[in-house]
User: Fold these one by one.
Assistant:
Number 1:
Amino acid sequence: MQRAAGHHKRLAIIDGQGRYSYADLLTAAQKVASCLLTDKHDLGEARVAFMVPPSFDYVAVQWGIWQAGGIAVPLCPSHPRPEIEYVIRDATPQIVVSHPVFENKLRPTAKSHNAGFLLTSAAANTKEPSLPNVNVDGRAMILYTSGTTSAPKGVVMTHQNITAQIKTLIDAWEWTADDHIVHVLPLHHTHGIVNTLLCPLWAGATCEILPKFDAEKVWDRFVNSDLTLFMAVPTIYVKLIASWDKATVEEQKRMSKACADLRLMVSGSAALPVTVLEKWKAITGHTLLERYGMTEIGMVLSNPLHGERRPGFVGVPLPGVKVRVVDESGQEIKEEGRPGEIQVRGPIVFPEYWGKPEVTRKAFRNGWFCTGDAAVIERGYYRILGRSSVDIIKTGGYKVSALEIEEALRTHPAIKECAVVGVDDREWGERVGAAVIPEAGSSLSLDDLRLWAKKELASYKIPTRLLLLDELPRNAMGKVTKGEIKRLFEGPCL
Ligand code: AMP
């Protein structure tokens, strides 16, 4: 925020309502801070939950909370009521801030949890407050993890964590004030908040915020705007490719040419299928830069901005981040090719799960954060094998990576999308189950799939259960929810 004052009249944000400079942003944030503080001088790390659509107003509220000394707890507008109630119950905010469009949804919830309620519209006419000095080691934000394996946990991030995470990416991806990004990601998740919103604002760049992802609108921005960067999750690239496929040849030429003007396109938050990377390269000329990160630690591994971006790999540790792979006894694995758990330490690492000291304690070993992700280093680059709890399938004494099997299955001509899970089995421990969306007009039987897979995979990795679906269940970030897929296998399958 201090840096924003230096960027002053530069264009900070574009949204559906207008264009705003850094000075506009600071003024709007101060008004929010003033409303939050009322007669207090400092919120003293009170939690402030807020639900505001992706827009200039969202950022004004986030920065206003920070200026007033509060902890920002963003709520996801598309989450169902029980999930929002869960966050409010867990974070126990002192105040809930709501855009008027969410008033009916949030006012009763705030009341039933004895929290104050503030509409963003109330901040418009307030005077300049005197602001507290915010301690950089103090808590700044609580983000709720998607909870693929357990109830969501509140990940506490300090101002210092966020600053370190931003600086790492500014260095690695060479953000400058001349950058211009279009923002299409949810704003309750680290990818949308740190990588695509706070990085450009730190650099003095312009962030153009779309209310939600819409493939046609994004292509329109690629074609009709002077964007320099784009960042998204793999499913978004899949949708952009589908939209390109539908366009006329003339339009396709224009769309592809527009992408050539961007300097960087990044994918992360889930494994980027090699087939998607290759198709995107074929239509835009860009080799997507794939990186790996997590809410608790920000971004830690990345393919290089300059240098080889290797398909199927997430690159090497980012500057200032310590990363290692350890075996089950906690020993660092020094040799290449042997899988283990990714552990991380450094100023980017979060200090605690909100209100869960025991869970926090178990998440660290000798100062290293245990990610729960398995990986292997090959020719100097990390390859993610998946989350140990859901993606590492233990079948007949073997440990196999669901991500590796998915990568192979995607090369089958009749498979459009797939997700592999372990299906509980008395004899094998787990069996390899493949949930598949077939290509339009194609059919697929388990026998055909197994016969084909013999040429691609070791016998113990070949699926023995097949489920044909029209859609894969996904969360608000577009990540496949494997717990739901596992449950689907409890019903009839092939
Ligand atoms: P979240 O905290 O919601 O960002 O989820 C973090 C998890 O997403 C990580 O622990 C990984 O399991 C997964 N993830 C993030 N980036 C990648 C990637 N490039 N490839 C594979 N998995 C990823």
Number 2:
Amino acid sequence: MSPLQAQQKAGRYERLLSQLAELYQITSDPISRMATAAALLYHKMGHFYWVGFYRLVEGQLLVGPYQGTLACQKLKTNTGVCWAGVHQNQPIVVPDVHQFPGHIACDPKSRSEIVIPVRNEQGIVQAVLDGDSDLPAAFDSVDAEYLNQLSQMIFNS
Ligand code: SME
């Protein structure tokens, strides 16, 4: 990605985060907030083929609010990128999903992926934010930085 494109992406994230901060005044309900974030990310950023949340519910990762093609409702336990995000408790950027052991292909068009843990006020992981692209290497440290800020706003703003 050229420096201009990187700057453009950062600018879009900046605007999106301030819009979300305003919208998050309306309710602190985490599911409403996830839905709002997924819609804004999908429609305003332009580089997500699929974006949404998987929530930890009774030890399982179940799909939450999302935008894009039909997703797996329940992810096989301790397998794939989303579970890796839960266990490692840090952002995971996957430039080529075919090289990630155990990657779960809900949509075979997915080529690269980013997963960010979503923590509550106590710092406990409650969900992950998952972004997919149909292009290889679509996500980088700029995405990780801004999506991490966004994810922490769900329970802590
Ligand atoms: N690829 C994910 C599964 C979720 S879909 O990308 C929407 C994984 O490996 O956990």
Number 3:
Amino acid sequence: MSSYKEEFERSIADPAGFWREKARNISWFREPTSVLSKDANDNDVWFADGELNTAWLALDYHIDQGRGEQTALIYDSPVTSTVTRYTFSQLRDEVARFAGVLRGLNVAKGDRVIIYMPMIPEAAIAMLACARIGAVHSVVFGGFAPRELATRIDDATPCVILSASCGIEFASVIEYKPLLDEALRIAEHKVNHCVILQRPQAQATMGELDVDWQDALKSAAPADAVPLRATDPLYILYTSGTTGKPKGVVRDNGGHAVALRYSMDAVYGVDAGDVYWAASDVGWVVGHSYIVYAPLITGCTTILFEGKPVRTPDAGTFWRIIADHKVDVFFTAPTAFRAVRKEDPDSTELAKYDVSSLKRLFVAGERTDPSTYEWLCETLKIPVIDHWWQTETGWPIAGNLMGLEPRTTKPGSANFRVPGFNVQILSEDHKEQGPGREGDVVVKLPLPPGCLPTVWGNHERYLESYMRHHPGYYHTGDGGYIDEEGYLYIMGRTDDVINVAGHRLSTGEMEEIVAAHPAVAECAVIGVEDRDKGQVPVGLLLLKDGVNTEIEHLQGDLVAMVRKEIGPIANFKRAIIVNRLPKTRSGKILRQTMRKIADNKPFDTPATIDDPAILDEIRDAMVANHIGLIGESA
Ligand code: COA
Ligand code: AMP
């Protein structure tokens, strides 16, 4: 039997035995005797009586193992022309001191701390400092607008917020403090303090409750790592669901550490001392798992990159960083490579750098279109692995197991089920689908360690969102199929979530904003395929009787509203006026029908939503399906 097959089958036949063995690869303060049990909610729980500290595991443990002088983190910021290195010892000391700052502000175990920061080392230091004292961090992506931040403040009820004076987007300086102040004004929950890091590019105006980051550090005493139960929450990360309110995905300490350590071994094939780079943002799950926790827990050197793959300064930025830091394994979103390819289709920039250290490339966050996949394979001539996962799972559900048994990949496929994830394909009426038959992609319970145990403050929402669609299975929200050879294909979301430039967004949330416009009677926002961003939102609008407005004006208003309420990352730029929206007899808008109609373009067509032909195509498709369109955007 192949080692992959054997390992996968063992993980499914005897989950407790399998994960007991994997749990030995991390260092516990108290080894768990219970591996898999049930909590009061009848939820599966991993390592219930184990004790550990994730920040200790990520830093102090390696110092104890003699790796104190190894580089733990490289901050590479082309937007500020900075490269800074931290050894494990230096990073541990910074984290311990900042943990002391939090202690000094009366942050205790279990308290929530929101981190709203750009991609600077202090963001990772803040996360690890929270973990060190058992505070629960909730990182909010810097590209979210104040209203989004306010929603998260009200849900997580933090005692302290950590932020910086600004972020840098290409050449623009984005001041964070006015956004934070606006969020605090909107939020009902009141925080005790904001700790603000002043960056040289912008000076934040400090208020009464604000504390200067550097001043606070001067008087802080380093704090030790506290023992935490495996089931204590490490963080909350909000992600888009089908409604306007994001879901607070909770991550525990023990299962998370065991799963991430295993993933570095089996999925990514990396070990202590390797240089691992995930070019994402700490605001997303990729940043949590594969910029901060997994590489450090494994004793790798991780890279924290502040910039964009193109125009900072050019399309060679990825290659320059791989060459400069001798990156072994690289992970990013396909959309980032589509941007690179667009600027430098012949890879002339690549030729300027020695990227021979690079052993393999992983892509995730959205489906990799075959054209980009093939371009990457031809350009790099190393294994390119599309792997699939979600904020909820925290680590890959499917991939090519590079540390276990690398196998041939198939373009368009997310490859194989990762051990621990018993992925099945079910029809709407819960019937298992055979090879090649599309259906709901689900995971038979128990989920492996590391996956969400609940939604913060709303266990009912957890049950409703994930557990009730198909009893006994976790509902991923993705549709797809498994072929005869066991390759899994993820074909897209079956709900109202879209994926725009690797950013997960809710069309329901956009609809709530668009519907608030005084001219709009009803609306639907659907995701339409886009060559660069993967998907982009398009609004279909039904106007109120008697409203006579130019689509250009209306569209301008709506774009501004969505940008203000969600943020620029929504990429909401297009709207079309229709004279009817398809509905069920009970009046429910058939979004899925419209999505299917709009989604009739092959991904490889060289089109973006800026091409007028795309809107023509959507219009024609809608008209052909009796959804009459009477206007459209320019
Ligand atoms: N703060 C403020 N604004 C931000 C921001 C941030 N952190 N991130 C993005 N924005 C802004 C952009 O500047 C842009 O503004 P504009 O409309 O004024 O031009 C807008 O949001 C849209 O951003 P995006 O669609 O991300 O395009 P981009 O050109 O800024 O970046 C990529 C392109 C490919 C680099 C980026 O989309 C990316 O890294 N995506 C991958 C995300 C990811 O890692 N997902 C996790 C899975 S691996
Ligand atoms: P997020 O929670 O932001 O990581 O987004 C998770 C969603 O992104 C998944 O449910 C999928 O819809 C999509 N996704 C992530 N990785 C892939 C992949 N490799 N192939 C297809 N879709 C993906």
